[in-house]
Amino acid sequence: MMLLLRNVSKMQRIFEHARKSNRKNKNAILSISDISKSFGGVKAVNKCSFEVKENTITSLIGPNGAGKTTVFNIISGLAKPDAGAIRLEKKNIAGMPSYRIAQSGISRTFQLTKVFRNLSVRDNMLIAKKTNDEEIKKVLKGVYFEKSLDTIASELSYGQQRLLEIARALLMPHKLLMLDEPTAGVNPRIRQELRAILKNLRKEGKTILLIEHDMEFVMDISDRVIVLNEGRVLREGRPKDIVKDKRVLEAYLGK
Prior knowledge:
Number of helices: 10
Distance between the termini: 68 Å
Helix content: 40-55%
Shape: globular
Strand content: 15-25%
CATH superfamily of one domain: P-loop containing nucleotide triphosphate hydrolases
Mean pLDDT: 89
CATH class of one domain: Alpha Beta
Number of strands: 10
Strand order of the largest sheet: 6-7-8-3-9-10
Order of helices and strands: HEEEHEEHEHHHEHEHEEHH
Structural class: alpha/beta
CATH architecture of one domain: 3-Layer(aba) Sandwich
C-alpha cells in the first residue's frame, strides 16, 4: 500500500511539473512563414519568418526601411504578400481582405493616429463595437483616458488621441493587438502611461505585437524582440541578449 501511495504521489508531481511547463511554453498565436513582398522590383520583405507567443509582448525593431510597417500591413491585410503563409492560431490569413482578418481576431493601430476628428469619443469607440457607455468607460479607464464621452476628438491633444485609438483597438474583439509605434510623438507623461498600460494588458492575458523605435521602452516592456534588417529577421531573442548583439548594433545603430 505504501509503495502504491508513493507511486501515486510521484505521478502527481510529474503531472504538476508538466502542467507548469506547458504554462511556460506558450503557444504561438501568430506564425509568419517565409513571407515576401516587393514594390517595383525592390524587396521590402524577403522570406521573413517569426512567431508571436500568447500572453506576451513582442517588439519588432530595426532601422528605417527594414520592412517593419510592410510586415504589419501584410499581417493585417492592407498589403498582400507575394509569397509565404501567415497563421493566426491554425488559420491561414495570408492575402485575406483586411476586414476578414480583423474579424478573425487581429486589432491594430497605426503609426499616424487615425481617429475620426469630427466624431465624439463615444462614436469613435462605437466604430469598433456596438456596446454601452459602461463598457466604453471601462476600456477608456484602462488606458488612463479621462475625457468625457461627448468630447469631440478634434479637441483632444495628440497624446489623448493616441490613447483613444488604442482604447478603440482594445474594445474590438481580438486575439492579437498590433501597435505601430505607440510612443511616437507623445509627451513623456503619456509615454510612461503607455508603459504601464501595456504591462497591465499582459497581466490580463493580452498578446501584443508592436513596432517601436524607443529602445529603452522596448527593452523594458518586451518579452521578446525581433530585429528586422533588409526585410529579413536578423536576430530574435530576449531583450538583454539583443542589446549585446554586435550585428544588431551595426544594423540598427550604424556602428
